Amino acid sequence: MTKYYVRGRELIIQTYSHENTHVPWVPFAGIHAGRLKGYTASEILQDKAKFLECLLEVKKTYYPDGMPVIFDLQVEAEILGCNLRWSDKAPPMVIDHPCSEEMIVLEKIPERHEGRLPIIIEVMKSLKKEIGTQVALFGLVCGPLTLASHLRGTNFYIDLITNPQYAVGMLAYTSQVTKVMSEYYIEAGMDIIAVVDPVVSQISPTMFNEFLSNDFSDIFSHIKSQDVYSSFFVCGDATKNLDSMCKTNPDSIFVDENIDMVHAYDILSKHKIILGGNIPLATTMLFGTQQDNMKYVVDLFEKIGKENLIIAPGCDMPYDTPVENVVGVIEAVQKPDLIRKSLENYHKEESNIVVELPNYHTLHKPLVEVFTIDSEVCAACGYMLETAVDVKKMFGEKIDLVEYKWVKQENIERAKRLNIQHLPCILINGEVKYSSIIPTKDKLFTEIEKYL
Length: 452
Hints:
The chain is about 45% helix and about 15% strand. It is an alpha/beta fold. It has two domains: about 10-340, TIM Barrel; about 360-450, Glutaredoxin (3-Layer(aba) Sandwich), CATH 3.40.30.10.
């Protein structure tokens, strides 16, 4: 790859000051960083030396203007009592919820010496010392709604309706945790604090405004008061909540492929907020060609221009993302005119994967299908699937349940045949019933009963 003079941290600061001359590039190489050096996700997230080694390799290989130090939304939950299941190619997954049986609000606040915080903070400080003048460093903290979901489980979505006073108390607590974690990461040298709350896409604007607006406003105000930039990361189709999210006053919002970037850009521009994203993780970065990745970037520039924009993956890159695909993104960001010309005659190849759908009209019992990005990686996907699993336990053998993960090519083709537009979603007998909204168990139970 042709070497290019990257402004790095300076360019990120210019962009956040609305003075950018080029579009910055921020690779979300969380667990994927381990692949660059041959380590598993669980190795790098628990070993300080391997963790730092892989992050330095990200800097060397991907020429980032900014980069997250860690993309793991379970750090806080683990300290607060959630048990985790570890994977080789995914971040750890919360497998139980300490507040699931009783409506209690914890009082514990994570301390610097607890859980994996000593490793993370030390790596942040080391990275700041080694490359902090060249690359803007993002510290990612778990947002209050996702953390409440970790602690309470899917019961929390029922609480928002039936126990609003408890829900307000829980969110006040988790927001305090978010602010304290932000302070730790700012002390360690982070330039931007990103509040990552994927589950925000799964609630209505009414619920966001009632339960979360004030908490997020307070969090972003707290971050900015310490002279660092703020960001709001969300996954899933959060289109309905974008305007409300903007009103909480983050400096930037990062979105994934479920959101139309042109529409998002129009909304964010009215609030003078930077837009980040949203290269599709599976269809483009994991399974696409280098040219597909290049084309996505230059097409995005054509649609919305280059001001107040940061190019990034839609979320944490899949572990097995081909390096050459990421390199294609870099080339397109750095030399868009040249790349656009080279792609003039390029057309994406059609998939030759053949998928057989069930005959939904002749099923002997209801079939519940949950389409996810990957329930082991995406919190919103995980809690939608958990709701379906809980309802399956209630019905037993009267219904069938299956998950289709977007990280498998045949499932992408299956979703195309079913005309699925957004993830995660729940289908019953081939009909989309819930798209980017987590139903309560009672609602899903009632909906399935109609098909018995």
